[in-house]
Amino acid sequence: MQKIPSSEITPEHLYLTRRQFVQLGGLAAGGALLSACGLADDGEGQAAQAGAVDETPRQDELGDPSTPFTEATNFNNFYEFSTDKVDVASLARDFKVRPWSVEVGGLVQRPKTYAVDELVKKYPVEERIYRLRCVEGWSMVIPWLGFPLARLLEEVEPLASARYVRFETLLDEEQMPGQRDDWYQWPYVEGLRLDEAMHDLTLLSTGLYGKPLLPQNGAPLRLVVPWKYGFKSIKSIVRIDLVEEMPVSLWMAAAPHEYGFYANVNPDVPHPRWSQSSERRIGELGRRKTLPFNGYAEEVGGLYRGMDLRANF
Ligand code: MTE
Fold first, then answer.
1. Which of 10, 235, 276 to mutate to test the pocket of ligand 1 (most atoms within 8 A of CB)?
2. Mean pLDDT over each residue of the chain, to the nearest integer
3. In sequence order, what DSSP letters do the residues of the chain get, joined into one string?
4. What is the mean pLDDT of residues 224-250?
5. In this model, does residue 243 exceed pLDDT 50?
6. Distance between CA atoms of 303 and 298, rounded to whole angstroms?
7. pLDDT score of 292
8. For an engineered disulfide with 203, which of 105, 145, 146, 297 has Cβ 3.0 to 4.6 Å away?
9. Could you tell me if the CB of 139 is within 6 A of ligand 1?
10. Ranges of each domain in the chain
């Protein structure tokens, strides 16, 4: 985001194949949904993922249609693999997502290491159709599968001194070639205030479109915080710690004047290098207005009452 500004402004026709572009045009004009079979199937990797893609057209609560599966799984930000969104899926294809464990600790009564399958079995998985707004100015609507992070935090019992939650992605340069780029401070780290983490909208996701997450989307476990810019939604999590001090995220360390801790979607606060007042919804022509808190102001506005949202960007 900071280092390769061209990635922010790649026009649609440069990253979509001609066939996809033609079909997306059809989508915008006629409202038809793409069939992921055929378009997204790039061979062994995707076929090897268990579970069928459920492409039933869905709408979010604003009536916006879900983004086609093929777009959500072939246009990805995952810098551990590549800074080029269209290369992530193929570079991540063989990423090992089992066995996988997540250590939950820090300022908690009952620290515990969970096998990811234990989490999937333990908490009822729900489908949540959320808008995802990237800080770069594009957005999607994704049907996630997952469970509220609050369920897991309640189980480990945060101590009274815990004020924030810190998340960490796997560190493994063998599998994640992007981590050899020492311009970034790996592993990818993100954080939430404890009340944000406990909010019902905050999801730990294990799947999308009715099937387990693909590596490019952050398998086997990622965070989804729909009212914040997409970079808060950290992928392939291996550690969750309750802490007293505000965590420093990878992006805060890389460019503190550009990326703050809160990162709430806010059309009134521009990024230092571009406006945040509008966005391009993947699959649509033209741009649409960006909504405060990405359209979730009613649910989460209260968390920030009295705060200066410009100073706390
Ligand atoms: N998590 C990790 N570990 N590494 C990343 O590079 N990119 C973030 C976020 N989570 C990123 C990450 C950004 S900038 C966005 S917009 C979303 O993932 C993109 O999620 P998607 O590829 O599933 O759409």
1. 235
2. 88
3. --S-GGGGS--HHHHS-HHHHHHHHHHHHH-PPPPHHHHT--SHHHHHSSS-------B-TTSPBPPPHHHHTTS--BTTTBSSTTTHHHHTTT---SS-EEEEEESBSS-EEEEHHHHHHHS--EEEEEEEE-TTSEEEEEEEEEEEHHHHHHHH-B-TT--EEEEEE---TTT-GGGG-TTS-SSPEEEEEHHHHHSTT-EEEEEETTEEPPGGGTTT-EEE-TTB-GGGS--SEEEEEEESSPPPPHHHHH-TTT--S--B--TTS-BTTB--SEEEETTSSS-EEPPGGGGTHHHHGGGGTT--TTTT-
4. 99
5. yes
6. 10
7. 98
8. 146
9. no
10. 12-304
- Checking if the pLDDT of 131 tops 80, the result is yes
Mean pLDDT of 184-188: 98
- Which of 7, 73, 77, 190 for a ligand 1 pocket mutation test, highest count of atoms within 8 Å of Cβ? 77
Hunting for tokens 């949540």 — which residue is that? Answer: 128
- Residue 51 has what pLDDT? 78
- pTM of the entire predicted model: 0.87
| pLDDT category of residue 32 using cuts at 50, 70 and 90 | very low
Q: Residue 2 above 90 pLDDT?
A: no
